[in-house]
Amino acid sequence: MEKLKEVLSQVLKVEKGKITDKLSPADAANWDSMSAIVLILAVESAFDVKFTTAEIKEIRCVGDIRKILKEKGIRA
Amino acid sequence: MSEPVTDPMSFVGYLNMAEKIEKNVRTKTISLKKSIKIAYLSSFNPKGIKEVLAVKCFQRGVFADIYQCGYNQYAQELLNPQSGLYQFDPDVIILFIDKRTILGDLFYVPYKISELERRDWADEKFSELQSLLAKAKSCSRAQILVHNFDVPYYSPLGILENKQDFGFIESLRALNEKQKKACVGDGRLFLFDYDSFCSQIGKKNVTDDRMYYLADMRLDSRYMPDLCDAYLMYLKPFLSFIKKCIILDLDNTLWGGIIGEDGIGGIKLGPTPEGRPFMDFQKHLLSLFQRGVLLAIASRNNLEDALKAMREHPHMVLREEHFASMRINWDDKISNIKAIAEEINIGLDSMIFIDDDKTNRERVKKALPEVLVVDLPEDPALYARTLMEIDDFSTLQLTEEDRKRGEAYTAQRHRADLRKGADLSDYLESLKTVVKIGVANPATIGRIAQLTQKTNQFNMTTKRYLEADIVRKAESGHFLILSLGLKDKFEDMGIIGVAIVETAADAWRIDNFLMSCRAIGRKAEEAFLAGILNKALRGNVRKVMGEFTPTAKNAPARDFYKNNGFRLIRREETLEVWGYDVLAEVPFPSCITIEG
Predict the structure, then answer these.
(1) Helix (H, G, I), strand (E, B) or coil at B501
(2) Under an 8 A CB cutoff, do A56 and B10 touch?
(3) Per-chain mean pLDDT for chain B
(4) Which of A13, A25, B138, B194 is deepest in the core (most CB within 10 A)?
(5) Sheet containing B351-354: which strands, arranged edge to edge?
């Protein structure tokens, strides 16, 4: 989770301590539609994976990102 | 920047850094020497490009103030004279219309129209673009960088695409060609060859299709730094960041091996696998010499050994006449580089240093940070490519003077030889200098603008003007724009001086007065000033004002007005205003002949 938190904190400008699986656009002021895209690009480059369009559209909270990474064999 | 980012060159790294730069500049926590206002107009979501460009400019000491149009609002912004774009008053407009935008449905179904319709389509799109650009030119003072279109690599016709009369692919190529032709001879319009850029990164990589569908991003964020580097190639000359001289080492740089040990027969140079990389490297240097880049040598060697190779080696491409300065001795490289800068009279920040020896390079980087030190790869096979990737030589126009510059410096070396045997006034007489003062005309405006952009030392106010600025001033009727041509018994230097004079009825104000450094010190500048004062006299103007603004580089011009009979009238911060009462004809220096 540490690396993912680092990426999320850089993109969303949220302190790492406040990042939980439940964090969603509703609680993070900077999580808008554009930063959601930047977030995906950052996660992809940090973990060297690619998300599909459908996976990207499914993301509602941090936990969803972790779930998709897990499906790709990455424990984050 | 305070908070570290894990990978500063990652996309997020750029975005965060751009934000900090913006904040720190706005709050005046940092201040940069130069700034540039860029309007970025795109037909899609340009997220990231602005930020990466801002960071790239920052890394070169420039604050880029970037305006972006509303989403896909480029046409509205360009066509409305009251738009935010024009209120922003940009120095540069970058217009990036993507192929999918201009093609619309034709991107997917190109053959739903006939050959004739495709021809009409290309004509129509071209004229739409031209009217947008014409509007941009009339409503702004900006230089305009316009993208062409990346020609698709896919056609539904497959192998038959190239059997079509004016097929889909050809129609886009034709549009690109028309656009390119429209930029030729236009001082403000520059074509950004996006098709070639996409070829370099690979057309299949250009778009991340997911991000296209999700966010309408057309360029994969991984390539945004490359795109911005390519923009910088244009922005550097707009900012007068131009390298003028390459200082070269000899052993293992211009040839393989060590001349002092291997001798003329032993060095690697010529049509062999080991010799050809050096020969080709020299040919590339020659091509830069021909576009006006100066070459010089700083090498630790016995002069006779080096000269023998340069004069007698059958495969040496560069000979003595190609070098503006040669420092071949056992002195320290740093002091030799400084001596070269002094000899050819250009600043260290206009220099590039190429040497195979890493220790030398590191020493130069440390001692002379203004010099651009090229990290030459170890393998000479990569030398020529490394040279081609240096994009700091671009000037906004290529003039006859550029093409002749190399010869000019050889003539300078000969003049220096002549000077050794005579006193100064005999020497100046013997040069048989002839000057010609001309009023700016379409043939000379390009060179006049270029001189205002490039001249640093003998430049009274260092006001930089673009071609369009000069045209506007000349057409206003309130300015007299003069050029000074110079020739002597060695060469015709072409235009080497510029004066921009604001001509009110009662008094004239010399807005700027400058001369190329290679022409100063032979009284031509005095002749030029006398010419201006005499023009004022003939126009019944009794007062001429001259201005001087000191910079880090223009000390040679500091006392020019004082030494020519002007009185200091006032100081406004750093600006000095000098005045001259025109009472009688001012004599020209006796060593100068005035032509025309």
Answers:
(1) strand
(2) no
(3) 91
(4) B194
(5) B323-329, B294-300, B245-248, B351-354, B372-374
- Confidence band for B1, pLDDT divided at 50, 70 and 90: very low
What's the whole-number mean pLDDT along residues B333-344?
93
How close is the nearest chain A Cα to the Cα of B197, in Å? Answer: 23
Residues of A with CB under 8 A from a CB of B: 6-7, 10-11, 33-34, 37-38, 41-42, 45-46, 51-53, 56-57
pLDDT surpasses 80 at B518: no
CA distances from A10 to B129, B206, B450 (A): 40, 26, 44
Which residues fall within 8 angstroms of residue B567, CB to CB, at 6 or more apart?
A: B578, B579, B580
Tens digit of each residue's pLDDT (9 = 90 or more) over B280-296: 999 999 999 998 899 99
Q: Give percent above pLDDT 90 in chain B.
A: 76
- Euclidean distance between CA atoms B406 and B402, whole angstroms: 8
State the greatest distance between any 2 C-alpha atoms of chain B, in Å, as a whole number: 81
Residue B2 pLDDT: 35
Q: How confident is the model at residue B254 (pLDDT cuts 50, 70, 90)?
A: very high
Pick the residue of A4, A5, A10 with the most B CBs within 10 A to test the interface with B by mutation: A10
Residue numbers in A near B47 (CB within 8 A): 34, 37-38
Q: What are phi and psi of B486, to 5 degrees?
A: -140, 135
Q: Which residues lie across from B494 on neighbouring strands? A: B486
Q: Which residue of B has its CA nearest to A39?
A: B12
Kindly report the backbone phi and psi dihedral angles of residue B36, in degrees, each rounded to the nearest multiple of 5, phi listed first.
-145, 140
Answer yes or no: do B214 and A37 touch at CB < 8 A.
yes
Query: Which strand (E) or helix (H) includes residue B54?
Result: helix B49-59
What is the pLDDT confidence band of residue B420, given thresholds at 50, 70 and 90? Answer: low
Query: At A57, which helix (H) or strand (E)?
Result: helix A53-58
* Banded model confidence at residue B8, pLDDT cuts 50, 70, 90: low
User: Can you tell me the distance from the alpha carbon of B591 to that of B588, in angstroms, rounded to the nearest whole number?
Assistant: 8
Assigned superfamily of A2-71: ACP-like (1.10.1200.10)
Domains defined for chain B, CATH in brackets: 11-238 (3.40.50.1110), 245-388 (3.40.50.1000), 419-595 (3.40.630.30)
Under the banding of pLDDT at 50, 70 and 90, the label for residue B422 is low
